[in-house]
Description:
Blueprint lengths: L11 H19 L6 E2 L14 E2 L3 E2 L2 H17 L3 H24 L13 H20 L18
Antiparallel strand pairs: 1-2, 2-3
Amino acid sequence: MARNARGGSRTRVQLAALAVAGLFVLLGVLGFVPGVTTDYDGMRFAGHHSEAKLLGLFQVSVLHNILHLGFGLVGLILARRIAGARLFLAGGGALYLGLWLYGLAVNQESAANLIPVNDAANWLHLFLGFGMLALGLLLSDRVGTGGRLDTPFDRP
């Protein structure tokens, strides 16, 4: 069983938040790695003119990568507590669903596409939004606690 900073065990919601946060940190770092990010020399700080694509699919910019890194670091901090893990997953899921709506509404060739987003990113944001929201709201053995498994087999 995983241990937290105080020597206690981490809950499943905390472990999920750590995994998701770690993924965001990894994506943020990989966005700055030539080869993993294609057309790296075409990366811009922000906006739809950035030609760089993470894994050749997801349009990224320096700002986009910094946002991934920051979001992941915030998640790592929040995952230290059950309530923080839930907030990161559920709140972050809602945020990503909002980003998905933004991606659907914005003209991808306009200056309003600041982050930037493309069709592949929109699908990813939808998947991340629902996945994080589900983990944050449902990953609990006892509703409202994010607690550890409490089955008849675990009782003395």
